[in-house]
Design brief:
By secondary structure, this protein is mainly beta. The protein has one helix at 62-71, and strands at 24-29, 33-38, 54-56, 74-78, 85-90. The chain has 1 helix and 5 strands, in the order βββαββ. Bound molecules: zinc ion (2 copies). Residues 14, 17, 19-20, 23, 39, 41-42 line the site of one zinc ion (ZN).
Length: 99
């Protein structure tokens, strides 16, 4: 190809991966519905959560995601390494959280 095609830079070799877009593959969870996860095929998995972190599809702003859960009395548990959503717990009004 002699066209002056500009290829986007990519750190990882995702060009040939059919399982993801830019290293993120689409999946679903019961809680989130449609969401993304780090591609298990071509990406290194987060060692903190073992690649279990999930990212909601409806927003790419995790603060907005957290706020929306808080509004529903829920508290998301996020991986502190990759920031992926792992689980959700009920917000405790008189928080005695010891996590
Ligand atoms: Zn991939
Ligand atoms: Zn993680």
């Amino acid at each position: 190809m002699s066209d002056h095609t500009i290829q986007p830079e990519s750190d990882a070799d995702t060009a040939g991966c059919l399982d993801c877009i830019d290293g993120m593959s689409v999946t679903t969870t019961q809680f989130l519905g449609a969401c993304f996860r780090v591609c298990t095929t071509c990406q290194p998995q987060c060692t903190c959560c073992d690649g279990h972190g999930r990212f909601p599809a409806w927003t790419n702003d995790m603060l907005e995601f957290i706020a929306s859960l808080n509004n529903n009395g829920l508290q998301p548990m996020l991986c502190h390494t990759c920031g992926g959503f792992l689980a959700v717990v009920l917000l405790d009004e008189d928080s005695t959280s010891d996590t």
